[in-house]
Amino acid sequence: MNNLYVGSEIGQLRRVLVHRPKRALTHLTPSNCHDLLFDDVLAVERAGEEHDVFTATLSEQNVEVLFLTDLLSETLQVSEAKDWLLSHQVSEYRLGQTFASDVRCYLRDLPNIELAKILTGGLSYAEMPVQSSSMMQGLHQPIDFILEPLPNHLFTRDTSCWVYGGVSINPMAKTARQRETNHLRAIYRWHPTFAQQGFIKYLGDKEIQYDNSTIEGGDVLVIGKGAVLIGMSERTTPQGVEHLASQLFKHSQAKQVIAMELPKHRSCMHLDTVMTHMREDTFSIYPEVMRSDIQCWKLTGDESGKVNVKQENSFVHAIEKALGIGQINLITTGGDNFNAEREQWNDANNVLTVKPGVVIGYQSNTYTNEKYDKAGITVLPIPGDELGRGRGGARCMSCPIERDGI
C-alpha cells in the first residue's frame, strides 16, 4: 500500500481519492451558491447517483477508489488528529473564544463519521443543538453558517496534488476553499494509509502564511519524463508555481516545469478545463484559449532549490521537447463555435485518463467525444447533468495518488 507515486497523467491509474458530496449540496441555495463558488444549486440525489456511476466506472477499470469522508472519519479516530482539526477548523478567531469552545465540545462528542460529514458539509446555527452563553447565536439567523459547507471538496484534484514521489497540499486561492486544505493535511499526517510512508510534502504541511503563493491541482499536469506542466490561472499564481518548482528541484523529483499564462476568468478556471493529456503524444485542448501565442516559460533548477526561468517561444514545442516527441497531436473541442464553447463550459476537455488512450468524460459532450473516438481515444461516458454544474469534470473530481509513469 505504500506506492504513493504519480508518474504521469496517462499511465495506468491505480488509486484515486474522490469525494461524494451530500450534506454540502443540501446546504447549497440560490442565495449562497455564488459565495460557495457554484453557479447553481444541484439536485442532491441525482448528483450522488451520477457520482456513483463515476466511481463504479473507475472500479471497472481496476482503479482503487478512496473516499474523502471515510479517510477523514478514520483520521479522526486518532485523538491528536481530532484535536488538531477542531482547533484549526473551529478556532476562537473564527467564532470567538466562548462559542468556539462550545462548538468544539459539541462536535468532539459526535461519532467520527458524523463529525467528518459536518466538517466537509457545514453546520448552520439551526443545526446546533447546544445553547451557548456567547453573543454569537443571538446575532445570527438560523440559516447562517457556524461552519460553511465545502461543496468544492467534490473537486479533490485541487486541494492536493501528487507529483512524482510527493504531494503538494495546496494553499488555495479562494476563501471558500481554504479550509479544505486542513482536511488533507490531517489525512496525510495521521491516516494509517499515509502516516508512515515517508513521502515528500512539497508545500502546505507547515504553519506558513503563503500570501500570494497560491496553487491548485487543476492547474498541475504531471506529463511524465520528469516534466510538469502548470497553468497560471485565476487560482494559481507565478509565485505559487515558483515555490512548487523550487521544492520539486530540491527533492530531485522533476527536471523541468513548463509554466503557461492563462486568462483569469471562470470559464477556464484551471488548466485542465482547457487542456488534458490523453495519450503520450495526444492532448485535448480548447483552441479559443490554448492559442499558439500564449506566454510560456521553462523553469529548471537543482537541489539548492534555486529556480532558473527561461521564456519559451511556444508551449507546444516546450512539451514536445520535454516528452521527446516529434509532434504532439492536439484534439480540439468539437462542433461549431457555439457547440465548442458550450461543451468546453461543460468540461468536454476535462477528461480523466485511466490508461493510455482510455478516458472518462461526460456523455453529454457529443461533438467532442466523437472527435476523441475518431482519433482512437476510447471515452467511457458518465452522466454529468448535475455534477457538471459545479464546473468540473472527471479530472477535477479525482486526485490520483498512485499512477504509473510513461
Automatic annotation (TrEMBL):
<keyword id="KW-0056">Arginine metabolism</keyword>
<dbReference type="GO" id="GO:0019546">
    <property type="term" value="P:L-arginine deiminase pathway"/>
</dbReference>
<protein>
    <recommendedName>
        <fullName>Arginine deiminase</fullName>
        <ecNumber>3.5.3.6</ecNumber>
    </recommendedName>
</protein>
<keyword id="KW-0378">Hydrolase</keyword>
<dbReference type="GO" id="GO:0016990">
    <property type="term" value="F:arginine deiminase activity"/>
</dbReference>
<keyword id="KW-0963">Cytoplasm</keyword>
<comment type="similarity">
    <text>Belongs to the arginine deiminase family.</text>
</comment>
<dbReference type="Pfam" id="PF02274">
    <property type="entry name" value="ADI"/>
</dbReference>
<dbReference type="GO" id="GO:0005737">
    <property type="term" value="C:cytoplasm"/>
</dbReference>
<feature type="active site" description="Amidino-cysteine intermediate">
    <location>
        <position position="396"/>
    </location>
</feature>
<dbReference type="InterPro" id="IPR003876">
    <property type="entry name" value="Arg_deiminase"/>
</dbReference>
<comment type="pathway">
    <text>Amino-acid degradation; L-arginine degradation via ADI pathway; carbamoyl phosphate from L-arginine: step 1/2.</text>
</comment>
